[in-house]
Amino acid sequence: MVQCSKCGRTAVTYIRYNGSHLCSAHFQEYVERRVKKELRGQLDIDKSKHIAVAVSGGKDSCVALLLVHDILSQRRDVTISAITVDEGIAGYRPGALEKAMRLSADLGIEHHVVSFRERVGRTMDDISAELGHRTPCAYCGVFRRQCMNDAARRIGAQALATGHNLDDVAQAILMNFTRGDVERLARMGPHLKVQPGLIPRILPLRSVPEKEAYLYALLRGIDFEDSTCPYWEAAMRNEYRDIIDGMEARSPGTKHSILASYDALRPLLQEKYPQTALRLCGCGEPSPSGRCMACVMREELLLNGRPGQKVPSAADPSRRHRGGRSQGSRPSRTSPGARVLPSCSRYGRAEER
Question: 99-119 burial, b for 16+ CB within 10 Å, e for fewer?
Fold first, then answer.
């Protein structure tokens, strides 16, 4: 049996990029130390007293919730909440939603659920039948980010933690470089400046590789959802994942080098592309142009589903959700004990209760 490089106990993993074998205790300490460092660098705890954690029920977000709780819950002046977005994907989301609810309950964390059906007016399964030139992931990503920001804002959170790991961040960096979208690179999280209407996102796991997050979840006994989204094959990100994984296999530490290079360039990018003033879209969400991408995509879906129909304006009252679900949509399952956020107008803010 291979021994731990630190204590001589049986090792559970080999860290190729630094050459160390670690036992369960020292591996968990290794992960936790990096997450603590990220939280110290990304979060101003004197200003951010309410931290929301986006929890899908998968390994990364569950690890993020557990570690944010372990590190910050001892502070009596800090509140931690969990937010789950129910996209309405039959056979995938219900099980993950239940696991997110169960973990939140075990940690004593208030859990909030916001659904595509309420916020967007369609489930993801509905959207997949109305696609135009975009992939399902393009719609899902935009709507999910809007749902998370809206939910975090409504519960009064000052920061929103997500479960993005090192693999996710390295892929996003490479994707934006190859697309020539340098301005988007400057806007990537973690967000250190507060923009009106936008809850700044923090990434506690950004220096933790996906495999290490997976092993940490297993060693901590987290019950997470391990199934695959039925729409994942269409994502362009998969190609970048394969490229970076191949580079990492040949040259361990490549993912860390991509992140370190980006962090070195980031101040220069932010100087060249400073944050622009935001204006409110007709739906109530802030946007640099005054018209958010979520509304653009809603109108695309409306036209895709009803060819030849005129797109109504943002102020048109006929666009407001009237309580029913769109034709052919599946009812959303909500786990017992989770707080469902108040219904939103189909294209607007939450209705006042």
Answer: bbbbbbbebebbbbbbbbbbb
